[in-house]
UniProtKB/TrEMBL annotation:
It comes from Vitrella brassicaformis. This is BTB domain-containing protein. It comes from the Eukaryota. It holds the Pfam family BTB. Residues 7-70 form the BTB domain. InterPro entries: BTB/POZ_dom, SKP1/BTB/POZ_sf. Gene3D superfamilies: Potassium Channel Kv1.1, Chain A.
């Protein structure tokens, strides 16, 4: 019986154009964005060339997203949730892609933004919960900065009753202690 070789997709990530090669099956299973690009019915060069450019995602953040995909595939989601909970909090605000602060580029806010961009809504929700857990009574200005970032990245959060209720409840608990 012939073994079908796995197709690798070339991903050009970030402003510095770092190259990743990942299995098509992994990408398609992790994100509806990749599924549309690589298997969708629209006529796009990404499907034909197996090359996708992601200039708005930092390579460190993309590497973390690949970790998410592997962890999701290994278990029922508990390992992924544990991993997200182990990540550092949401402050300081994310560094720009051009910044030399490499550690900040895998921060929760970058991850949340990338999950939303790639239509990974379950992952975005788990990261959002971790962001809310990182809020603190001692630095309300940082909390406001984080909320401003979230709303700038996804203005629809204002209209989302569930997200708004979750945010208000969480902020109230954190502020009141």
């Amino acid at each position: 019986m012939a073994h079908k070789e796995e197709v690798l997709v070339k991903l050009i990530v970030g402003l510095k154009k770092e190259v990743f090669y990942e299995k098509k099956s992994l990408l398609v299973s992790m994100s509806p964005f990749f599924k549309r690009m690589l298997e969708g019915h629209m006529n796009c060069t990404e499907r034909e060339t197996h090359t996708i450019t992601l200039p708005n995602i930092h390579p460190n953040t993309f590497g973390e997203l690949i970790n998410f995909a592997f962890l999701r595939g290994m278990t029922d989601g508990r390992k992924l949730n544990e991993h997200i909970r182990s990540l550092p909090g949401a402050t300081p605000l994310p560094a720009a892609d051009q910044s030399d602060d490499e550690a900040a580029k895998t921060g929760l806010l970058h991850l949340w933004s990338a999950c939303n961009y790639l239509d990974m809504q379950n992952h975005a929700r788990m990261v959002m919960e971790r962001i809310m857990d990182s809020f603190t009574r001692s630095d309300p200005a940082a909390n406001i900065g984080v909320l401003s970032f979230l709303l700038r990245e996804k203005p629809a959060l204002v209209e989302d009753q569930q997200a708004r209720g979750f945010t208000v409840r969480h902020m109230t608990i954190k502020i009141k202690g």
